Amino acid sequence: MKFTIQKDRLVESVQDVLKAVSSRTTIPILTGIKIVASDDGVSFTGSDSDISIESFIPKEEGDKEIVTIEQPGSIVLQARFFSEIVKKLPMATVEIEVQNQYLTIIRSGKAEFNLNGLDADEYPHLPQIEEHHAIQIPTDLLKNLIRQTVFAVSTSETRPILTGVNWKVEKSELLCTATDSHRLALRKAKLDIPEDRSYNVVIPGKSLTELSKILDDNQELVDIVITETQVLFKAKNVLFFSRLLDGNYPDTTSLIPQDSKTEIIVNTKEFLQAIDRASLLAREGRNNVVKLSAKPAESIEISSNSPEIGKVVEAILADQIEGEELNISFSPKYMLDALKVLEGAEIRVSFTGAMRPFLIRTPNDETIVQLILPVRTY
Amino acid sequence: MKFTIQKDRLVESVQDVLKAVSSRTTIPILTGIKIVASDDGVSFTGSDSDISIESFIPKEEGDKEIVTIEQPGSIVLQARFFSEIVKKLPMATVEIEVQNQYLTIIRSGKAEFNLNGLDADEYPHLPQIEEHHAIQIPTDLLKNLIRQTVFAVSTSETRPILTGVNWKVEKSELLCTATDSHRLALRKAKLDIPEDRSYNVVIPGKSLTELSKILDDNQELVDIVITETQVLFKAKNVLFFSRLLDGNYPDTTSLIPQDSKTEIIVNTKEFLQAIDRASLLAREGRNNVVKLSAKPAESIEISSNSPEIGKVVEAILADQIEGEELNISFSPKYMLDALKVLEGAEIRVSFTGAMRPFLIRTPNDETIVQLILPVRTY
Fold it and tell me: Which of A190, B55, B93, B366 has the lowest CB atom count within 10 Å?
């Protein structure tokens, strides 16, 4: 194998596939990055067996030559060293050549690295995915779907299925749900696919987070192919494979209250900042909660109390307070997480009593719902 | 105590004095910040008994009113909470009022915090320093003196005196020396004081690092008052006290070779980047070294070898190579540290053999010297 490649593109691809490489793996070759040079270009692959990422650099793009292949071939190089080395090479082009015994020469200007490589035939094959049907979603929408749900997955392995986001496709609609059983995030999106196609899978939260990091913010379509055990996201020159979580995702529709007893509409930023301030003292309190008091036709009060340190109270002018008077306590972290992913200047919070889950939404937007369970404080 | 103050100035002062506050202290009141409101303005003090910082906010600056004192007084507030609270307050002004039992109200807009304070009379007094004689150094020079030496102090407590920087004043010249016994940094500066004034003290490296962080980059003079046990730096509205280290600093003058057998002059940036690249593999090697080979009238070669991973070799065009042929090994970290604080496009390295300390300097600048001990590799 021997080729010359643009350094900036090499660095970018290596950084992308590096996101799938774990230093804690039981399969030693997976600490490496597989490089395959073919007549069309060079591909880089990283994997931790849960996630696999392949990034392809074509020989040419438009009229520009990016790679010059002198001899096709393949090699596996230690990911940690290879990624640090390419970042620090001195010139705009890099030559990579495999010699005898998998010894690999990396040359750039007057710098020459010799790295001991491994046989690429020993590298596990990527999942084979038959792609009869793909779902297509614009990259920016996909990133939003992830951002607005993935933060709510469970970080505890006691119920592994909750560490993933449930993707359910029914009647040309995608429904993404994440919950750690204390709060829930739900996001819907219309899909341009036949009504009778349906899926119901759980994608590991970690996979979605890593996927989101390597996708650029643009409107290009990402092809998504879902199988029994794997999901494949195909963006331009990047393939992202993730295994799916085994098991049935709990039915969460019954959790979401259909009616409400108290409704408030407030300025998102003012509300968020007041919760953020109250959380400063809540962190010390035994319950780690802030309290919200709403009196219709008056104002909303956010407060928190940490006996040893002190207390904080703040009034917020609501744009609307309707229904019953309410005193409710909740985790400020969950509230901040939910508020940060909602778009729009105003938010609507719908309560059905101090002990029932409540909903946070953007007025007139039914595609996203955040739900939080209150905390009993007595 | 009751006053109203500009939030941005309050935040700035609190952040400055916070640098002296440690959460790991045996004196509970030192986890707090002392606030004293007088007729002239408000002062804030933080201390960990080694370092004490006082920041003063005057009532007025130019024509602008910064503080309105309604009632003088004092209080100590928990540093961690107070500093986070003031950063997150909603409005441009803040009202701070002490009520009964040291209960302190912090108001800004509609947000109201009640913090349990402590009696300011319980707060330890700052060192009393008689300032007959002060040394004056422009702030930007002082920051350079610190930056170019403090990185070389020892981080090990086996010889506590080496965790500080030796400041020696003699014949109107300040000589700052730091060493961890593997490398040494030395910086001189002319002072505008009488020739017969002399000092020889050791300032803890940590104190100098924190001092440097709170000084702005400008040319205003900092007054430095040195006593037997303390040093005080007086900048505009800030007093920075540090205890001095006990003991005699070793005499390092004999360490510095007066002659040289091999001299090279190279481009600083090219040299630094080559060392940086070689260090990628050096980190894995048993000795953690890079090797430099210089052949007069030819070129310089930087290399490193880590048998399991691979090796790297790079030639550098030298502007000058004079004297004997040389092969020498050293820690790339020490070399990078030294190169980063040297100014100028070129550097001169003077060797006196593979086993002797060598010097790194900027050509024609005798005010700064970096010395590194080589590593024996056989």
Answer: B366
Contact B281, B312 (CB under 8 A): yes
- A-B CB pairs within 8 A amount to 83
**If you measure CA to CA, which chain B residue comes closest to A284?**
B81
Residue of A nearest to B284 (CA): A81
For residue A83, name the pLDDT band (cuts at 50, 70, 90).
very high
- Tell me the per-residue pLDDT of B117-155, one tens digit each, with 9 for 90 and over: 999 999 999 888 877 788 999 999 999 999 999 999 999
DSSP letter for A118, please: B
∠ CA B371-B342-B20, rounded to 5°:
90
Domain count, chain A: 3
Residue B201 neighbours by CB distance under 10 Å = 19
**Cα torsion angle, A73, A76, A81, A84, sign:** positive
Q: Taking CB atoms and an 8 Å limit, are B111 and A311 in contact across chains?
A: no
Look up the domain containing B240 and give its range: 135-168+189-251
Rounded CA gap, A5 and B336, in Å? 29
- Is B174 inside any structural domain? no
* Chain A residues with CB-CB distance to B105 below 8 A: none
Our CA-based measurement puts residue B298 at a distance from the nearest CA of chain A, in whole angstroms, of: 15
Strand locations in A164-319 (E): 164-170, 173-179, 183-190, 199-204, 221-226, 230-235, 238-243, 262-267, 290-294, 300-306, 310-316
Q: Is the same domain home to A247 and A290?
A: no
**Residue A378 falls within a domain, yes or no?**
no
Token digits for B87? 């950063």
SS3 A349: strand
Q: Name the token pair of B192.
A: 């505008």
Amino acid letter, B246: D
| Distance of residue B360 Cα from the nearest chain A Cα, in angstroms | 23
Last residue of a domain, one of A221, A253, A285: A253
| Nearest alpha-carbon partner for B244 in B228, B268, B267, B263 | B228
Residues B298-309 pLDDT 10s: 789 999 998 888
Q: CA torsion sign, A284 to A287 to A289 to A293?
A: negative
Helices B139-147 and B205-214 cross at an angle (nearest 10°) of: 140
Q: How many CA atoms lie within 13 A of A13 on its CB side?
A: 26
Determine the Cα–Cα distance for residues A108 and A91; give it in Å rounded to an integer: 6
CB B231 within 8 A of CB B176: no
Query: Residue A165's closest CA among A182, A151, A150?
Result: A150
As given in the structure block, the two tokens for residue A355 are 């002990």
